[in-house]
Amino acid sequence: MTMHTREEQMQAFGRLLDVLDQLRQKCPWDKKQTIESLRPNTIEETFELCDAIMKNDQHEMMKELGDVLMHTCFYAMIAREQSLYDIADVLNTETDKLIFRHPHVYHPSQVGAPEPKPLPYVPKTPESPKNPDNPVSADTTDFSKAETSEQVLKNWEQIKLKEKDGNKSVLSGVPSSLPSLIKAYRIQDKARNVGFDWQKKEDVWQKVHEELSELEAELAKEDKECSEAELGDFLFSVINAARLYHLNPENALEKTNQKFIRRFNYIEEHSIKAGKPLTDMTLEEMDALWNEAKRSEV
């Protein structure tokens, strides 16, 4: 596929905005949409994008990225109608935030610049003046040196706490509506970026075994409430271990979900061919087919 020039990319973006404006005026469905009514669709589109990413289906990813982008523009269009902000404010705010959070690439004076220039082309000055209308203010902390991605992430969390309208605490930036597994990973990762973490990753296994033992003890007592609490602690510790070993628990679990679906579908397909409903099959028969499916994947 031929890659487009920046001018062509901007024209395509403008074309999308023009079509959205026309649909808002002339399409009955688009006319009645609100920020609240779009939210469930946005969640669905986001998950469809995630599905395409998991399948590594680039063509489907391209389509789903378009749907997510359309929703972003739609929200901004509704906000514009209410004289709150428009897509230019969305883009400029995001750009300024990226510049502010990357002081190892941009000098603070480049926040708000129409054509921001990276550090090699910007003369360094001792300090930027304090300005209540500008998210950048003079600070004694030097974030300009970040030679590894690890250091960038650590700086990122501290910089966000210094932003105007930024996070009030380290963990406040984690959305409450995130799925619990992803949320656990994110809050652990944010705590790590300010130094709250295991000194050696191997030490986490003692915690995992400890939490598993506590879960087993509560299960033996048949105490449902306490068992649920200990199950949460055990899962949290396993997610912690995954993070320390640079494994993504969400991706790992989804791959296992897909693997289970494939193998179970294999059992179901063979039960249909045999004219024998799954409910009439023995566990041994299903296990045999499961193992067949497993061997076929090798």
Task: Report on this structure.
The chain is mainly α and 298 residues long. The protein is 64% helix and 0% strand. The chain has 11 helices and no strands. It has helices at residues 6-26, 28-32, 35-55, 58-81, 87-100, 149-162, 180-192, 204-221, 224-244, 249-273, 283-296. Helix 7 packs across helix 9 (224-244). The chain starts with 5 loop residues before the first helix and ends with a helix.
User: In percent, how helical is the residue content?
Assistant: 55-70%
Strand elements, count: 0
Please tell me what the overall shape is.
globular
User: What Rg is obtained from the alpha carbons, in whole angstroms?
Assistant: 26 Å
Order of helices and strands: HHHHHHHHHHH
How large is the share of residues in beta strands? under 5%
Multimer state:
single chain
Largest sheet: none
Low-confidence stretches: 121-140
Span of the ends, CA to CA: 34 Å
Q: How confident overall, as mean pLDDT?
A: 87
What structural category characterises the helix and strand content? Answer: mainly alpha
Contiguous helical run count: 11
